[in-house]
Write a structure and sequence with these properties.
- The complex is a heterodimer of chains A (286) and B (317).
- Chain A is of the alpha/beta class.
- Chain A has 2 domains: 1-55, no CATH class; 57-279, Alpha-Beta Complex (2-enoyl-CoA Hydratase, Chain A, domain 1), CATH 3.90.226.
- Chain A is 32% helix and 17% strand.
- Chain A has a 7-stranded mixed β-sheet with strand order 3-5-6-7-8-9-10, sandwiched between helices. A two-stranded antiparallel sheet of chain A has the order 1-2.
- The longest helix of chain A has 20 residues, at 172-191.
- Chain B folds into 2 domains: 5-52; 58-310, 2-enoyl-CoA Hydratase, Chain A, domain 1 (Alpha-Beta Complex), CATH 3.90.226.
- Helices cover 49% and strands 15% of the residues of chain B.
- In chain B, strands 1, 2, 3, 4, 5, 6, 7 and 8 form an 8-stranded mixed β-sheet that branches.
- In chain B, helix 6 runs parallel beside helix 8 (173-185).
- Classes of the chains: A alpha/beta (286), B alpha/beta (317).
- The interface between A and B is large, with 63 and 56 residues.
- Strand 4 (80-81) of chain A pairs antiparallel with strand 9 (315-316) of chain B.
């Protein structure tokens, strides 16, 4: 019986003649599994053309999308965390920081920059989730504070794009107080009558949700972003039941009254420009 | 009396003392000298135990079942001249957050704080001191009321965290806490915040923005409880002691990091051992700070408050 024997030569291509596919040339949407080239994916702002899934992007991506011609000047780019608590669990915090810096090429989980958005001067802070889960430590708080101070000085609006697992445990009390620090600075911005728009992206949880992310004059989210105070796993353990479909997603928050709007990434710049124009005539001071 | 495991030597001595006293009553044997010896020994042992508490032991003391809770403090500070005010005017009355006007001697103060329960039934009623969004909104409503009538605010913090439930999320736990943070920064009246037990994370900070933030000696204040920290970073619950050390959550640590303004000493053996002495001490401290804060110009006070919180954090620049 020759059924299981390969009688004819099947695969004849020699491994030396194999065509090399460059690493990361293709992108498969985790939601609908559609495959596109990585280049197409980036051209579409990392949003799936078929199902609308918004893939996570970082400060580089958002700055490119939002600032006119992608031009901006970064504020306080060089500040880094100094491990003041000499925190150590299974690894030292210093090692974790080094590993994150190496992996991402970033200095911490947030970047702040000033530039123009449709000709309006604006300061934007944007979180980077790849850097220790976008967690908020002293550096994140300080860079937001510096951004707000810059906006106050220039009399221009402030935008913060959140994407974070919450407070950075390795900075313990210091990280908790960044919630207070950022809120304190925002209260000054509010007093000065300058707009603050919070953009919530997937995921925004914990101390970030319980401070600056929820304090926008407008709170705008990308579609289907996970947004909550307690993470879904913790809520599930607390109530001992399965969570309802769509729980803690943008649409759920909009329905419960905590978001002004859900905006797709392709419309983000336009909607932000509209909102800023609606809230003031900028620049007030140059 | 309940005793923590490291308080065992104190428990044994107290038991001996009780036996000695009983014997004296029953048999007319003079136990006076022995009793005095035992009492001084109890003081000695208590002092040696309590002057060397590890961070984890302090966490345990902060949760001691005999420790006074918020309403105990308010009642003692105001000598009963207190009226509790309920409700957030939107959803319901959160039993984990209490508040109202009280007169401390002649001074009217708005007291606000998380409330824990003293037994199983009351613990459930108080939701273990874990407030829902309506609790934070009630707190803010009462702060606004105090501001309107120019009364200083004293918040008493004692919570294992904001409640992480389904409805809490639906009603915007994150937004409720965030709102309090920004609004408290701009309150025109003096605000004193005192951690009297557990100061866990955003749930504590939600009523924790003040001109003075103080901690009782045997309390903790951090971004997460040692148990949860252990379960996340070590992936099990066994490393709570190490986590308590690593988090630098005691008053001494928090003060040296510039995150709280002061520590209020507790009587020997902790607040639960001598509650009356604790109340007296706390009242003295509150009055001392109010005397400084009340005469200040509001704008100046707000400016100082914001500067203080803005300076928090350590970075390399």
């Amino acid at each position: 019986m020759g059924w299981f024997k390969r009688i004819q030569e099947g695969i004849t291509t020699k491994s030396t003649e194999k065509k090399e596919i460059p690493e990361g040339a293709w992108y498969q949407c985790p939601s609908c599994k559609t495959v596109v080239t990585s280049q197409q994916h980036v051209e579409r702002m990392s949003v799936c053309n078929y199902c609308g899934h918004h893939d996570r992007i970082g400060s580089e991506g958002y700055f490119k999308i939002l600032f006119d011609e992608g031009k901006f000047r970064e504020i306080a780019p060089k500040i880094t965390s100094s491990d003041p608590l000499e925190f150590e669990d299974t690894k030292t915090y210093t090692d974790r920081l080094e590993a994150a810096k190496k992996k991402t090429g970033l200095s911490d989980a947030l970047r702040t920059a000033s530039g123009e958005l449709n000709g309006m001067p604006v300061v934007i802070s944007c979180m980077d989730f790849q850097f220790i889960g976008g967690s908020m430590g002293s550096v994140v708080g300080e860079k937001i504070a510096r951004g707000i101070d810059h906006a106050l000085k220039k009399g221009c609006p402030f935008i913060c794009i959140s994407k974070s697992g919450g407070a950075r445990m390795m900075e313990a009390g210091l990280s908790l107080m960044q919630m207070a620090k950022t809120s304190a600075r925002l209260s000054l911005l509010s007093k000065a009558g300058l707009p603050y728009i919070s953009v919530l992206t997937d995921p925004t949880t914990g101390g970030v949700t319980a401070s600056f992310a929820m304090l926008g004059d407008m709170n705008i989210a990308e579609p289907n972003a996970l947004i909550g105070f307690a993470g879904p796993r913790v809520v599930k353990e607390t109530i001992g039941k399965e969570l309802p479909e769509g729980f803690q997603r943008s649409e759920f928050l909009l329905e419960h009254g905590f978001l002004d709007a859900i905006v797709e990434r392709k419309d983000l710049k336009e909607k932000l420009a509209f909102s800023l124009r609606a809230m003031g005539d900028f620049p007030k001071v140059q | 009396m309940n005793y923590l495991e490291f308080e065992e030597p104190i428990r044994q001595l107290r038991e001996q003392l009780a036996q000695a006293k009983e014997l004296q009553e029953q048999s007319d044997v003079d136990m006076e000298t022995l009793a005095q010896d035992l009492e001084s020994k109890i003081r000695e042992v208590t002092e040696s135990i309590y002057s060397n508490l590890t961070p984890w032991q302090r966490v345990q003391v902060s949760r001691h079942p005999d420790r006074p809770y918020t309403l105990n403090y308010i009642d003692a500070l105001t000598d009963g001249n207190f009226m509790e005010l309920h409700g957030d005017r939107t959803v319901k009355d959160d039993k984990a957050m209490v508040g109202g006007f009280g007169f401390m001697d002649d001074q009217c103060v708005m007291f606000i704080g998380q409330q824990k329960g003293i037994n199983t039934k009351m613990r459930q009623y108080r939701n273990f001191g874990m407030a829902n969004p309506e609790g934070y909104r009630k707190a803010l409503r009462l702060m606004r009321l105090a501001e309107k009538f120019n009364r200083p605010i004293v918040t008493l913090i004692d919570t294992p965290g904001a409640y992480p439930g389904l409805e809490a999320e639906e009603r915007g736990q994150g937004e409720a806490i965030a709102r309090n943070l920004i609004e408290m920064c701009q309150l025109r009246v003096p605000v004193i915040c005192i951690v009297i037990g557990e100061g866990a994370s955003g749930g504590a900070l939600g009523i924790g923005i003040g001109d003075r933030v103080l901690m009782l000696e045997n309390t903790w204040y951090s971004v997460i409880s040692p148990e949860s920290c252990s379960s996340i970073l070590w992936r099990n619950w066994e490393h709570k002691k190490e986590a308590a050390e690593a988090l630098k959550l005691t008053g001494t640590d928090m003060q040296s990091l510039g995150l709280v303004d002061g520590i209020i000493p507790e009587p020997l053996g902790g607040a639960h051992a001598q509650p009356d002495a604790m109340y007296k001490q706390l009242k003295k401290e509150i009055k001392k700070h109010l005397n400084k804060l009340v005469p200040m110009d509001s704008d100046k006070r707000i400016d100082q408050r914001i500067r203080k919180f803005s300076a928090m954090g350590v970075v390399n620049s």
